[in-house]
Amino acid sequence: MNRLLTHLRHVDLAVPDFEKQLDFYSGVWGLTETASDNGISFLAAEGSPEQYVVRLRRAEEKRLDLVSYGAATPADVDTLAEQLLSQGVQLISRPGGVDTPGGGYGFRFFDCDGRTIEVSADVAARRHRRIETQESIPVRLSHVVLNSPDLDRTRLWYEQHLGFRLSDTLSSPHMGEVMHFLRISNQHHSMALAKGPHTSLHHVSFELRGLDEYMYGTGRVLRAGVRKIWGPGRHLAGNNTFSYFLDPHGNTVEYTTELESLDEDTWHPHVYDFSQPEVTDQWGTANPMSEIVAKESFNDVDRGVFVAPPV
């Protein structure tokens, strides 16, 4: 099918302790609050033209509100909405004006696991800047990873309905396939799907300027006393660096850099055995991957499944 999505825009989280989360993301994590409105905060990455990469919403229950992707034109938004309707996908809204910073034209729908996905075009670009040498704050949003209890069904859904393509898979002799890396461009993945016991957010990843800045950032977050789950290291699939931390509400967030760019015409997906230590971490610098580490990112059961966020 034609690929109508262009890039990952933002990930929106609902949180009971709004102030604590806002302090974390706008403070130690290095995002910039650019707008706020009655218990909602929009947080941008200084190096990104996106109006915001994280939205926080004050709520009684923790949930993933939505994942937002870009499209090239309003016509592509309309085309995608018509395709999804004809394929029986449940739309939350029809294409129309987007009432968030930067405006635009978009719509929302549920994926097969009940997550809210938004697709938009014509969002005004934000004035952003070049991130300087040794500046250890996120340049942009890199990717999002989602837990799914039925990995292959969810992968197939994203391939069939949204034009994602498989880049690589992680597998092991005892657990079978546990993660699919999916792309909508030559970037190795903008989304990955992880095998989890329930539908939930696995992690949100933020790109730093380079290796030095990634290490400075990892150290800065560690010194701030934030709980590190795993890293620093370098994955084999995607060839990107990783340092995983927990935000105050137990969502996993990652600093990364140097995610692989593929030649899509010649690329063939690999199946990597993640029980081999060099698959999870080529460098050998991270704490070993274990069931305990893996369970940290199962997250809580998402209360937002097939329930559209109020805003």
List keywords for this structure.
2 domains, 311 residues, Glyas_Fos-R_dOase_dom, Catechol-2,3-dioxygenase, Glyas_Bleomycin-R_OHBP_Dase, 2,3-Dihydroxybiphenyl 1,2-Dioxygenase, domain 1, nine-stranded mixed sheet, 6 helices, alpha/beta
Explain how this protein is built.
With 311 residues, the chain is of the alpha/beta class. It folds into two domains: 5-121, Roll (2,3-Dihydroxybiphenyl 1,2-Dioxygenase, domain 1); 140-296, 2,3-Dihydroxybiphenyl 1,2-Dioxygenase, domain 1. The protein has helices spanning 18-28, 74-86, 151-162, 211-223, 277-280, 291-296; strands at residues 5-15, 32-36, 40-44, 54-58, 63-71, 96-97, 105-110, 116-121, 140-148, 165-172, 176-183, 191-195, 200-207, 228-234, 241-246, 252-256, 270-273. The strands form two sheets. The protein has a nine-stranded mixed beta sheet with strand order 14-15-16-13-9-12-11-10-17. Strands 2-3-4-1-5-8-7-6 form an eight-stranded mixed beta sheet, with helices on one face. A hairpin with a 6-residue loop joins strand 14 and strand 15 (241-246). It starts with a strand and ends in a 15-residue tail after the last helix. The model has no long low-confidence stretch (mean pLDDT 96).
> Order of SSEs, N→C?
EHEEEEHEEEEHEEEEHEEEEHH
Gap from first CA to last CA: 31 Å
CATH architecture assignment of the largest domain: Roll
Uncertain regions: pLDDT < 50 for 5+ in a row? Answer: none
Domain VOC: 7-122, 140-258
Organism: Kitasatospora cineracea
Protein name: Catechol-2,3-dioxygenase
